[in-house]
Design a protein that fits this description.
166 residues; alpha+beta; Immunoglobulin-like; four-stranded antiparallel sheet; 1 helix; rod-shaped
């Protein structure tokens, strides 16, 4: 192959590349589509509790010990999430809950109203609320009936299971 042929081949190869580049230059294609972006916002709640503490009790006084309202429960639910809180009967029944110290016991109950008429339970008489994203502290009322024969100098206690439904 002579030198002119080699240059011609190189030149024609280069020309072909330039032509290919020019063909693609003005012919770009595009396509579009939509993509949905979604999130499922679920209601979420948390609950915590501290002790419900009655004042000192003297069962001989003939008076029931009506405890000052307390807020031992903290519930935090997402905004707009409705919730209920039920309480177990503990060591007794819903009619009469019982705090114990060994074989010794003292009756009490907890209520959802300040008239001490609605016993807090885990089915029909619940603490109700509606979440706002911030901690909420529902009020609980307690009462120990009068004239109970109890051993003094003892600390009586009971454990209730609280159930948060939302």
């Amino acid at each position: 192959m002579n030198t002119t042929s080699k240059h011609f081949l190189r030149l024609s190869g280069l020309t072909g590349l330039i032509l290919l580049a020019n063909l693609n230059e003005g012919h770009t294609a595009t396509a579009t589509t939509n993509m949905n972006v979604k999130v499922n916002v679920v209601g979420h709640c948390t609950i915590s509790a501290t002790d419900f503490l009655f004042e000192d009790y003297d069962g001989t006084g003939g008076q029931a010990l009506i405890q000052s309202p307390q807020t031992p429960i903290t519930v935090t639910c997402a905004n707009g999430v409705g919730y209920t809180i039920g309480a177990s009967a503990g060591s007794g029944s819903f009619t009469t809950r019982t705090m114990k110290n060994g074989a010794n016991s003292i009756n009490y109950n907890l209520y959802t109203d300040n008239g001490y008429a609605t016993v807090w339970n885990n089915s029909t008489q619940l603490v109700n609320g509606n979440g706002n994203g911030s901690p909420q502290t529902p009020t609980i009322y307690g009462q120990i009936p009068a004239n109970q024969t109890v051993n003094t100098g003892l600390l009586y206690s009971d454990i209730l299971t609280l159930t948060l439904k939302y």
